[in-house]
Specification:
With 242 residues, this protein is mainly α. 81% of the residues lie in helices and 0% in strands. It has helices spanning 3-22, 26-38, 40-58, 63-66, 68-88, 94-113, 122-139, 143-152, 157-182, 191-210, 216-241.
Length: 242
Amino acid sequence: MSVELSILMLAICLGAMLQVGIGIGFSIVAGPPMMILLGTATAVPVLLLLNTIVSAVATDWRILTEERKTISTAVSGCLVGVVLGLAIYPMLSEPFVLALTGCLLLIGLLTTLVPTHAVIGTSGFAAVSGLSGLATVWAATPGPLMVFGLIAKGRSARAVARLVQPIALVAYGIAFLLHSLSDWQSIPLGLQLWAFVGVTTIGSLCGRAARPYLPQSLIKTAIRVISLVACYVLFQRAYVMA
């Protein structure tokens, strides 16, 4: 195994642990090295597949009945965003897509730093979910947007870490299916993909075991830091490709 592939496998494992533990992190940690080694066209559908696996392992199925309305609103908004994103994607350049996704994440991050006691309603949350769907298709990085929407809706950081998983499962799964139907050849099939799947599953299980012991303040801080890193990565890549 080459050094580059070893680094990618480690990034996949750590990203899966973060995603399950705090609610976001997989695409942000594993995305950049995967895009460098595999190319963006190949990396995005692979990230969607692996994120689907992460979300499936991380989902606490009891929350589906506890938060049915919130999950239904988020899933509906995400699906609209995914379909719209696929329709718009061919008309946009890759640097523009990356920069726009970075701007959306940055706006969401800044809203969590503004001291306010207002809580967004159903319409506002649906709009944020739609933007998350767009980011899912364009850059496989919807996590921060959905997390920001849930925080703005008044959910605690610990609740967000659990609640975002079933929403992401549907969003990633549908996005991966639609990507596969449009360009199946871009997905590498073989031992390498199975290795990615295995490492993702191991990292997800480790993250699920650690999740109950993570302090809420640590989760919220980690969400902000990881989101800021995601903004930098997206802007930097957009600048390089422009």
